[in-house]
Each structure stands twice: as C-alpha cells, then as structure tokens.
Amino acid sequence: MRARVLVVDDDPALAEMLGIILRTEGFTPTFVTDGEKALAAFKEHRPDIVLLDLMLPGMSGIDVAKAIRGESGVPIVMLTAKSDTVDIVLGLESGADDYIVKPFKPKELVARIRARLRRGDDVTPERLEIGKPGLQVQIDVPAHQVTLNGAEVKLTPLEFDLLVALARKPRQVFTRQVLLEQVWGYRHSADTRLVNVHVQRLRAKIEPDPERPQLIQTVRGVGYKAGLG
Amino acid sequence: MWLRRLGQGVGRTADRLSRPLVDRFRASLQLRVVASTLIASTVLVLIFSFVVAGSVTSGLLTERQDTAVEETENAVERAAEQLAPYGSTTDNTLATTMQRVVNELAEDPVYAPVIVLRTAKGDVTKSHPVSGVAVPSEELQAAVADRKIATQYGEFTLGDEESMPYLVVGSYIDLNIDYELYAFYPLESQQDAIGLLRTNLALAGIALVLLLGVIAALVTRLVVTPVREAARTSQRLAAGLLHERMEVRGSDDLARLAGSFNLMAENLQSQIRRLEEMSMMQRRFTSDVSHELRTPLATIRMAADLLYDNRDDFDPVTKRSTELLQDQINRFEDLLQELLEISRFDSGFASLEVDAVDVGRIAEDVVEGLSHLAGECGVIVTVKKPKRRVIAEVDPRRVQRILRNLVSNAIEHAEGKPVEITVAEGDTAVAVAVRDHGVGLKPGHADRVFDRFWRADPSRNRKTGGTGLGLAISLEDAKLHSGTLQAAGEPGKGTLFVLTLPLQSGNRVIASPIPLRFEAEPAEAATAADKADKEVPHATKD
C-alpha cells in the first residue's frame, strides 16, 4: 500500500515539486496551503506522515503540530527555512519528530520520510520492562503498547522507538549519536537537539517527576540510559 | 621581655581596631569632612581661648597692681607719720608702735589686710603669721632695699586659711631708722573671675566644636546624599536597569546634577533601545531573507536534482548544462548558508547550545563523514586521541562545523599527502590540531586565512569550490566558545590549524594543550601531542 503524505506548505511551486518527487518515490501526497485547513485535511485523509512548513498563513506550523499531536501520534517532519535553534527547538517541542532545513536534497527528504515510516515490521513477540515495583514501565513491542504501573501511556511512534531502544539494553549508556542513528536513522550528525527534546518529551509522559528523572537518566558527557530505579 | 611582648600585643590589637576605622574613614567623604572640621575648629578654639584668657588675666592683674601700689604709698605715708619720732631701733616703745601701726593699717578696710613691717635691722612686725615661699622673696627685698616700690605674685598661707594667691607690694620708708613695709593684697576675687572665665571659655569652646561638627555633618550630608544616590543609580543603570532615575528636588546645583544625570540616563536608554531595535530588525531581516530565499531555492534544488538524476537520458549539451546547474546550485546553497551564518554572528544573535560531549568522538565522526572527499583526493586522514573520552562543554554542532571546515580544507590542500588530526586534553582546555603537508601558507598569510572571502591564490582551481567564508565562520564559532583558532604554515610544507576550547563553558582559554608550533618535519609534527596514545587510521582509498 502506498503511504499517504500530507504536505502543508504555502508555496505552490515547492508543493508541486514535492508532489513530483513524492509520486516518483511511490507515495500518495495530499496538499494544503493554509494552516487553518491543515487539521481538517488531516482528519479527512488520515495520512501516514505529515510534512509541515513552520511559517504558514492563518495558523502557524507550531500550532498545527500541536493540534495534530492532540489527535494522533502520526510522524511529523518539519520543513523549515529557519535554522535558528529557537525555531527548531520550538518546533520539536510542539510535537515534530524530525526536521529538515530548506533547501534540502530530495533524496535526503525521502530518506527521512522512509525512516519515520519504517516500523511495524517486528512481529516477534517481545516484552520489555524497566523500573522497579511501584515505578514500572512495561512495553509490548509488537502491540506498540506502553503501561506505567499498569496504566496505559500514549506515546508517539518516535517516543516509543526511543523508549524501546533504551529499554532493550537497560543500564547501557547510549550516546546521543548512537540514538540519532538507531532511532532517527542519521549518520555522522551531532545535532543533539533532536535527542534532548525528545527525551524530555518522553520523560514528561512516563516520569513522575521529569525534573528528577529515574527511569531515563542522563549520564553527563555521554548520553542517556534506562535506569532501574 | 614581657613588656615588649605586651607592647607588640597592644600594637596588634590597636592595628586590628584601627583598620576598619581607617577603611571607613577612607570610604566616607562625610566622615572625613566632619573629622577635619572637628580638628580645625578644636585648634582654632584652643588658640582663641588662650589668647582671651591671657589678655583678660593680665588686664585684671595690672589694674589690681596699680591700685595696690597707690594704696601702699598711702599706707607708707601713714606709717611714716607715726614712726618719724623714733631715732634709734633700741627705743623700747618702737616695737609697740610698729605693732600698732601694722594693726591699724591691717584693720583699716582701705588698705591691705595683711601688713609686714620690718626695720632694716630685721625686727619684723606682722599683722598675721605669714608662711609660704620666702616671704617676701629675696628679689623683692633687694628691690625694696634699693628704695623702690616693687611687687610680687605668690601663693601664701596666712594663719589658718588655705593657701591663696596674693599680690605683695613692698616699699621703703625713709626715716631716721630705715623701714620696709610689705602689704599683702589677696587676689581671690581675680582668681575667681579668671577661673569662671576659663570654665566658660572651655564650655563655650566644646559647645562650638561640637556644633561645628554637627553643622559639617549636616552640610556634607546634604551634598553627599545626592552624590550617593547618583552612585547607586548609576550602579543600577550599569546593571541594566535602564529605567532607574534620580529624584530631582528644587533647583540648586544638586538638582542640576540629578537633572543632567537623568538626561544622560535617558539618552543612554534611547540609544540602547535604538540599537536593540536595529539589532531586532537585522535579525528579522536575516530571518526573512533566509526564508524568502530558501523556499524558492528548495524548489530549484529539487528540480535540479531530478534533472541531474536523469541526465543520462539527455543529449550531451543538456546533460552538461544540468551538471553545471547542479554544481552551481550546490555552491549557491553553501554560500547562502554561510552568509546567513555570518550575518547571524554580526547581529550578535549566534547562541551557544552547550552540551557535555566527547570532542574526540566528534573529530572521528567528522573524518568519517569526509572519507568520500578524502578518497577522491587520495589523502589518508589519521586521528590521534587520548584513550579516555575528552568531555567538554561545547556546542556539538558548531564544533562539528569547525572541524569539518578544517579537515575538508586540509584534505583539499594536502596534495595527496597525509593529514593528521590530534586531539589533546589539558587541565582547562581541549585542543584539536589539524595538520597537512600540502600547499602551506606564505609568510603573513597565517592570520589572513580567517578573513572573509580571502584566498591565498585567486587563480587556484578548487575542487570543492569553497565559499571563502568557512574559516571566518570557524573563527567566529571558536570565539563564541571563548576559545581560539590559530593557523601556522610554511609554503610547500603544509599548514597547522589549532582549535582550543575551554573544557567548561563560560571559562576562557589560557593555554592550549597543543602549542601552535609549526615544524616542517612530519615526524616532529606528529609528536605535537604526546598525550595522544590511540591511533585510528582511516583508510580512505575507496
């Protein structure tokens, strides 16, 4: 089945070009030029992935990302012409899983989309556990289900992948570069902002006190590990 | 011995006690003014008191002396009348007469209460028993013997009374027998008057000095308070509280000070606000330009890539055109990227995203990422780094960018010879050295390589078509970390770049673990960091 891509961008030329590229690569794109209409289009088309421009007329890309996150955990890749840290971190915090700065190479964009769509291939039953009694996270990998002390926690697919990567090898410290490679599919990148922001988002969902994390601990100067209490 | 120790101890204690006082004295203008006023007024009051007391005393005594002399002359006349008949000291009645004369004179309230009459032979008749200093003094007796009227001041104890000051007037009575008459005038009232004067002067003096001290304190307070307020206000201004102002009261000099201070603050504030606005505009402009240029460029980029991927289907002319288009879009993209980065530095909006990361790992990642370029150029790149991690609080993206710039630069200019990268850690800093053995630098070019759009050899054909901004941006990136980036080289023998960054963000680089010392021999250059003990060769012939 061809993956559905919702493209939210106000530049018609760019949108058309994106359409050509995406169709060539075997995706089914839908286009919206206005932030206001993005959410309605999202509900109507139920895309597998969203490409979202940050600067939009009507409703900003940040707000669109938040609105979509309120509905579902579908992967969002930001297209941004701004490479300032503030803009990128703001976009990631509002719910985007990844970002790509304009101008980008088509192959790079396609690789990012594929990386975000590549999932659900695990069929071997795998159950993971981190934490201690009273603060226990259980992960049912094939079912994409996470429970914290028995109560279900809604995670986006990216947050889920991040948690699974850490939980598969508890106590092992993962550097940000390794996580970028395993979870995002990047190589040779030192953009640790992606990892930092998403670890924070994950902590906000599963840690009782995100300021003093117990389940996902920071190892200063190295990276992160899934803690055991 | 113990005395000296005690002395030293006392000295030390006094030192300890006086030091804060001295400090306070130095620090407070008010204290200084009050203290000097007190000292000056005390000296003045003391001088004034002495002069006044002296002149009043001498005035009083002179007056008393004049009347005393006059009275004594009268007494001498009266005594002479009664003593005239006696021709010899052997007369029996003489002593009785003398005593009578003395008693009469002493009882008469006009004359001195105490009279001493003496014949030249030494028979003394006194109205009272007189003791005290050689009464009357030899000097006085000598003067009287010379037939003069003379005076003497002195303390005498008469009878049972307490010792009192007296004025003694001595006179010679020239008769058949020679007599000397000494009259004692008490100076009690004068002494009382002088005592009262002294007390009053002392009281008035102390009151005056204190009053002057208080006045000085009040006046300096009037002046110092606004000055202190100005100091406080300017401190707050300096701390960034641009809305701080001084209170303007009245229309005196201090009010003018406050007024002009406020004007200055006002101007400063508006200047800063203007600069802030300009900076904001610059930032927004950069951001807008970035967006407006990048969106169409993204479309062009994708279209060109699509064409480029299908270039084998085109006729040779179109194919070559597509290739040129692709190359130049790459170049244009790099240039735009770096121009925006430079303008971000220029507008002061480049911010450091600090993370504690392994710098050695970043260096290895950069070399791995550039292995394709190294392979194209036939350059072998090696990384030497310490076994343990070199954790530094840096912005990993920026460090990666600096190293990518330095390494790709080195590969381009290496002319096929090996490139060595050395990571070393010091106490406070981490350094990365990038050394090639290629083209090298002409004398004087070591600093210019960091200039924007500067090229050592304009005619040189460059493989990757660098923008000319890479090293300028790298230098800015290093400066943003409070670090340094230096270059050294010799023509034909290669170039050495040393990047030094503080281990802890916010610190400065004092000394680099790798000194910038260019050695022409490759073997020597490799010893630049003895701490490096792990060699990671990156075979790049692929």
From TrEMBL, chain A:
Single GO MF descriptor: transcription cis-regulatory region binding
Modified residues (4-aspartylphosphate): D53
GO cellular component, one term: protein-DNA complex
Residues in the DNA-binding region annotation: 125-228
Domain (Response regulatory) ranges: 4-117
Keywords assigned: DNA-binding, Phosphoprotein, Transcription, Transcription regulation, Two-component regulatory system
Annotated OmpR/PhoB-type domain residues: 125-228
Domain of life according to the entry: Bacteria
Pfam families: Response_reg, Trans_reg_C
Classification via InterPro entries: CheY-like_superfamily (IPR011006), MtrA_REC (IPR047673), MtrAB_MtrA (IPR047671), OmpR/PhoB-type_DNA-bd (IPR001867), Sig_transdc_resp-reg_C-effctor (IPR016032), Sig_transdc_resp-reg_receiver (IPR001789), WalR-like (IPR039420), WH-like_DNA-bd_sf (IPR036388)
GO biological process: positive regulation of DNA-templated transcription
NCBIfam families from the UniProt entry: MtrAB_MtrA (NF040689)
PANTHER family xrefs: DNA-BINDING DUAL MASTER TRANSCRIPTIONAL REGULATOR RPAA, REGULATOR OF RPOS
Designated name of the protein: DNA-binding response regulator MtrA
Organism: Glycomyces paridis
High-level lineage: Bacteria, Bacillati, Actinomycetota, Actinomycetes, Glycomycetales
